Amino acid sequence: MAKRTFSSFEIFLIFLLVMMTGITVALLSLLFITSGTIENHTAPQNSTPSRTTLFQNFSGYHIGVGRADCTGQVSDINLMGFSKTGQYARGILTRLYSRAFILAEPDGSDRVVFVSIDIGMVSQRLRLEVLSRLQNKYGSLYRRDNVILSGTHTHSGPAGYFQYTTFVIASEGFSNRTFEYMVAGIVKSIEIAHTNMKPGKIFINKGTVDGAQINRSPTSYLWNPQSERARYSSNTDKEMVLLKMVDLNGEELGLISWFAIHPVSMRNTNHLVNSDNVGYASYLFEQEKNKGYLPGEGPYVAAFASSNLGDVSPNVLGPHCTNTGESFGKESACSASMCVAMGPGQDMFESTQIIGRKIYDKAKELYESASQEVTGPLASAHQWVNMTDVTVWLNSTHTAKTCKPALGYSFAAGTIDGFGTLNFTQGMTEGDSFWDSLRDQVLGKPSEEIKECHKPKPVLLHTGELLKPHPWHPDIVDVQIVTLGFLAITAIPGEFTTMSGRRLRQAVREEFEAYGMLNMTVVISGLCNVYTHYITTYEEYQAQRYEAASTIYGPHTLSAYIQLFRVLAKAIATDTVANLSSGPEPPFFEQLIVVRLGKGYWDPYETHQTFLTVEKYEATSATWQIIHNDASWETRFYWHKGLLGLSNATIQWHIPDTAQPGSYRIKYFGHSRKQDLLKPAVLLSFESSPSVFEVITTW
Q1: Which keywords are on file for this protein (predicted)?
Q2: Annotated binding-site residue numbers
Q3: Which of 380, 477, 584, 626 has the most CB within a 10 Å radius?
């Protein structure tokens, strides 16, 4: 065969082709490695965003994380959770944050949003307003089916952001100021996550957390069948499920952890806004990963979300009689007002740290060893359901019904984590003529229908029949599941007890398996989208302790939820989500009863990036460096209402043993009101600082 020769021009063309190919490969590789975002997807109002993507040739998800402050008021507003009269906010221990995570498929076609918020629970009004604002900015990208809002259930966050009358009364009114702070913080955290999206990977791990929880209603748990209880080693769920998120270069982005525990290490005697034990776990993890940043700052986001915590307490020493100090197994050993569960620390601050660190330590262990990658398509399913009228199939021939909402007598008793102040006790299966008569005169008599439906619960408040000034409890409730490959997140609109959560997880897993989705990991995400109090098992309901008396839709509530979540799981597994009905849309009430704020007390009402700083003098640069703010665990800001429109602020710095010797100062940032004659009042910002002081040594 004759040897082929090339002309100079042909050699030039071949060389040019090789060079162009190399440049193209290099540019594509550079794009793959360094690209920080996928398409912005920002759409005009009410428009559908484009689905164009930059690339699809990677295994994983597009991941965005974001954190934003949602603290709001820190004075003269009720703290939400214990419903204790007089438990007003009077300062701040730690700030409250909304932590958002957006996960999208490589081609950008499907995505889900999970937001964990340092608040008592997500109210329906809060969710509806957040979804409305997201629609205004992003069109149909973020919707009711693919956005989950979950409260951590701290009992030390502001109240006042509800629309149903029961919660408005507990909050002593609706606070538009608090509501706006929360909505703005949640939306901002989602916006940050949206902007920061980048290709990455998600890893999952599970492990047991020991020594952090007890069951606060163990006698109720024993009402569950012995054969069922025998399948579990504990009367609480000790398993933590953790997601680790990294980008394609291995840079750490964030984590979500689900673990069942009540954030009530801070007691009902506390008056400082804070995120409690799970918030302390977030604080520790974010401080470790965001080296050199102040608390609440830095790119890494760590969320410790709620789960089936209904009957789970962090006060691990159990109930003690406060007048004798003796521990006991049954609250009948002393009056309810003397029965309090004790945490492991010398005070509630130390108990919060001890429990929070146990949660953090296990999360760190699971995070560092996480190796199982989450892969597979994303999906989401959602329905609004009228929970007052669900027909429950008990078997193939017998049905039951859910009830209009009602609260039982033991609701007023409280729990060992926070007892009630009147002569109510847990386990009441009969009413009281005095309280019945008083209720009938003030609110009217409950119908025979609602009393019969809720048996054996003796109805104290027939909230489902009370409609003024607005309904006292929600009828329309969200049920929602999102899936990431083999992980299913069930968004629960309340507080499931331990066994209720176990039954729901099993039912959802079995439904997925029945339609070909095998080996699913099902997570219970608590306090999501709308608050409906507690959900016990049918058997626990018979005992009528606090959790059962607070199961507002009656004895078959859990069975109804299991039935509804099975429908969602089947729709996802069979790819028939589009055929689901959306259900009856919930209301958004206007003209709510407004919180009456103390007039003339201005400084704590105005939002600040921080109310305080602790600063250290650096001689080499002759500058003051901020080392702590009011989000730091080591600082406490107390606000005290004075006379004639004056107030007092006290700032404490509990000096840690890591503090370096040197010169320090503390600064306070506030507002004052200036009132000139015949002129409207104006707010003036100010800052003040006492004398410089020396830290010589710590121990």
Answers
A1: Hydrolase, Lipid metabolism, Membrane, Metal-binding, Sphingolipid metabolism, Transmembrane, Transmembrane helix, Zinc
A2: 153, 262, 495, 534
A3: 477
